[in-house]
Amino acid sequence: MSNNPTSKKLNFLQLLSNEEAIYENETWRPLSKIEIPIIQRDYAQGREGKEELRENFLKFLLEAINGTPKELDFVYGSVRNNILQPLDGQQRLTTLFLLHWFVAVKENRLNDELKNLLTKFTYETRTSSREFCIDLINKGIIYNPEQNISTLIIDSSWFFLSWKRDQTIKSMLTMLDDIQQTFQNETEVWDKLNNISFHYIELQNFGLSDDLYIKMNARGKALTDFENFKAKFEQHINKEGWESNAEATKTFSHKIDTLWTDLFWNYRDNTENVFDEQLLNFFRTMAVINYTLKAPKDDKFRRIIDLLRGGQKVSFNQYLDLGCFDEDYFTTLKFVLNKISDKSGLKTFLSDTTYADEKDIFNGAIKNNLGYAELLKLFALYQYLACENDIDKVNLQNWLRIVRNLVEAHRLYYDNANTFADSLLFLSKLIPYRNRIVEYFKDSVNPEDKGFPKFIIEEEKTKANLILQNDDWKNAIIEIENHGYFNGQIGFILDWCKDENGIYNIDKFKEYAEKAKAVFSNDGLKNFDNFLFQRALLATGDYLLSIGRNYSFLISKGRNERDISWKRLLRDDNKQRKVLKSLFDNINPTTLFQDLEKIIAEFSDKNDWRYYFVKQFEMIDNCGSQKLARFNDNNEFDILLLGSTMTSGFHKEYYSYSLFVELKEKLSLDESSYKDQKSVDYWKYFELNGQQVAFDCKTGKYIWTQNNDWDNPQEYDDREKAIFELTRESY
């Protein structure tokens, strides 16, 4: 036997029939059959999830039929007793077998001679697969182009329904349907099948046993999703001619195997030492940006954005069909990856993360988990990098500052793809002015432009105008902008520091900025013991914000942050924000707590519904995590302290609970003595001395009963009388 490998170029029928199909003792001789061995996996090209693979392979074969001869990869095999057992090429050979059978049936070519030839191809993997192939050839079907061929086969008398559970047979049926769809309109195909060939190599001619090959093959891995993706991308690049004049070391193919790999290697899955998912996700994230910029905002837009941002696999062909992978995408991707790639990890350009956290942005991109706001920051950062040969860090910082301010002011409203798209398109129009963005904002940006709310644009224009006046304004604005909670949203301070002529006063600006820092931490309102700040603010005026039928004492973060947060209070120029200004005008950062306590102490109107909220911190404390109360517009005495958002959850009645709080310490009452309820139809009350004490909002009177006889309650003349009677009975 020769030690040199010998190959033979054959088509499928030649492999089955050629007299010189087996090379042994330096001569070729015929084989008796092709048998897929037990060690091979099931036929997989017809499986769910392989749609793109089938589509591409069948298109490739169709091109051969239409006159362009095609040569497939090598087919390796081992021969024993004149039987060829393919060890590499099973999937391709099976597809060719199905294609030859379909064309033969469609064109009435399936005579006895051909049946004998095709039956030489068989599966050893399981009995059902082998018998299906035999019956498919010998019993067959009557072809009807109006029906799916899989339906014709399944409906045949010889087809066992149990065969549907065989994965190989299921895959074959799926592939046959796709073959039918691809070739059904083609005529006189049979003779053109000779245009499809491959090189067959008998494994023994390499000096390898099949046992050794099996072991080697078991250690190897099939091409990963990214390797397949990369190969298709490279083909697409070459087809479009995007790198026709590029130096070899600067091409996509070179970079992705060298410099870019060095970057992503640092973010690999350490258990398997692979980074394919990270790379694919980065390409995917950049595709989201490109699609959003260019796609029509029709009925399908939101659905496609959800697809691209979701966890479902997106095929290369889908990206192409959606227009994601165009030359702009490719150019930007290349420039960005070249800029940020480094052997030691991600290359960053800013010394701090105030305006954009480059590491978080990259990590979000490779995990495909960036929210809309973060995607906008990614676009701003990477588009800048893509546009600049040399990065000016000062200009980059100025650009990202404006973007941060716009995005963070609008963050809570990015709840759908259309809102995101509007903002992205707005930012894309600013890119040409990125290196003089403050000047451009001052002079040229129109507050009416779609993308961000008018008040946000107007705030940035105001700040741009002041910043360009002098460094004093610039430093003061940027310092308070960078407060962790405000994140660029300082319109309330700008509004408050204007004099009666509308002139901005820098001393007043700095004064209000210092007060704002004294009241708010990076996470929101500072933790004032016993709701000291909220109570002083309420004593100053009604600052509560509505959400549905409820009103809130405000939260810093969490559910419904958009509607009932301190951010909303600071943002909206309304009566509630004016209340906050009034309080700010009466406090000093150095004596803040004393000032707040004084305001609370001086509030004395017991007929005002705010009184007990102001005087008793327990009232706000019992308004649940969202600090909600419900007021009846038709009855000033009907006030509920909500434990949740609905009255179907546990809640307390305002006046009865305030009385309970007043008596609690005096009489050493346990909190369990107060009975909150889950329905407005039930009395909320506390128990004392065998009595149930409640408040009747219809009469505005405190009442009491015994044994829960609410049909016959007794009234107290007033609150003082109730306190007197209840305390007297307790001693």
Describe this structure as you would to a colleague:
The protein is α+β, with helices and mostly antiparallel strands. The chain folds into 6 domains: 7-220, no CATH class; 223-344, no CATH class; 348-453, no CATH class; 469-520, no CATH class; 523-646, no CATH class; 651-731, no CATH class. The chain contains 33 helices and 21 strands. Strands 1, 4, 5, 6, 7, 8 and 9 form a 7-stranded mixed sheet that branches. The chain has a 5-stranded antiparallel sheet with strand order 12-13-14-15-16. It has a 5-stranded antiparallel sheet with strand order 17-18-19-20-21.
Q: Helix share of residues?
A: 40-55%
Computed structural class: alpha+beta
The separation of the N and C termini measures: 115 Å
Number of helices: 33
Mean pLDDT: 90
Count of individual domains:
6
How much of the sequence lies in strands comes to: 5-15%
Task: Indicate the low-confidence ranges by residue numbers.
Answer: 1-5, 205-221
| Number of DSSP strand runs | 21
The gyration radius over C-alpha positions equals: 38 Å
Shape descriptor = elongated
Largest sheet: 7 strands, mixed
